[in-house]
Design brief:
The complex is a heterodimer of chains A (120) and B (110). By secondary structure, chain A is mostly beta strands. In chain A, 0% of the residues lie in helices and 50% in strands. In chain A, strands 2, 4, 5, 6, 9, 10 and 11 form a seven-stranded mixed β-sheet that branches. Chain A has a four-stranded antiparallel β-sheet with strand order 1-3-8-7, with no helix packed on it. In chain A, a hairpin with a 2-residue loop joins β7 and β8. Helices cover 0% and strands 55% of the residues of chain B. Chain B has no helices and eleven strands. Chain B is globular. Chain B starts with a strand and ends with a strand. The chains are: A mainly beta (120), B mainly beta (110). Chains A and B meet through β4, β5, β9 and β10 of A and β5, β9 and β10 of B.
């Protein structure tokens, strides 16, 4: 089955530093990947849609200069949290849809394992 | 207005009980519908897709009502292992976006 791998699974960083999170589709090519953020006891909130070879599409209220997204290849998207602050501490999850691939005619999404970011 | 609305619960039910969750969506252009399960501090995992005709997978039954724009999930004979958060997810073809409900917390009690 389709696998999406996310790395690192957890990270602790100092305030003001930048953190890069990688999301890879291991056995399929994903032209579109999605980045979500989830605060405790809240739902996943879509941050941005990452399009291979073009600029990401950000949801309203998400700062594109703070959350840099790069989708350089069909199997890799990265999210960089720049100048992280304690309020950026959250659970970040990427996903990729199988739409248009050989795996499924449906549009279900598969998720990476998530990255728990703690900024101190 | 949120794309997807879901009762957050919590639902605390005894083992063996039947429990139902509902979810409404606002965009009539929504095309695909899913229930995901999320365990604490883990990523969501697909529980089942929801089809117009309704579908069943063991103890789980999902239904879709396009006219009223709601989706339901029924769990029969609840097990302790069913304790989790259940997320209603809607896919909108434009931009291939996925929108999540807030999740409904279920705890099955021995």
């Amino acid at each position: 089955g389709a696998v999406v791998s996310q790395h690192p699974s957890w990270v602790i960083c100092k305030s003001g530093t930048s953190v890069k999170i990688e999301c890879r589709s291991l056995d399929f090519q994903a032209t579109t990947m999605f980045w979500y953020r989830q605060f405790p006891k809240q739902s996943l909130m879509l941050m941005a849609t990452s399009n291979e070879g073009s600029k990401a599409t950000y949801e309203q209220g998400v700062e594109k200069d703070k959350f840099l997204i790069n989708h350089a290849s069909l199997t890799l998207s990265t999210l960089t949290v720049t100048s992280a602050h304690p309020e950026d501490s959250s659970f970040y999850i990427c996903s990729a849809s199988l739409r248009g691939t050989r795996f499924s005619t449906n549009t279900e999404a598969f998720f990476g394992q998530g990255t728990r970011l703690t900024v101190v | 207005r949120k794309e997807v609305e879901q009762d957050p619960g919590p639902f605390n039910v005894p083992e063996g009980a039947t429990v139902a969750f509902n979810c409404t969506y606002s965009n009539s252009a929504s095309q695909s519908f899913f229930w995901y399960r999320q365990d604490c501090r883990k990523e969501p995992k697909l529980l089942m897709s929801v089809y117009s005709s309704g579908n069943e997978d063991g103890r789980f039954t999902a239904q879709l009502n396009r006219a009223s724009q709601y989706i339901s999930l029924l769990i029969r004979d609840s097990k302790l292992s069913d304790s989790a958060t259940y997320l209603c997810v809607v896919n909108i073809p434009t931009g291939n976006q996925f929108y999540f409900g807030t999740g409904t917390s279920l705890t099955v009690i021995p």
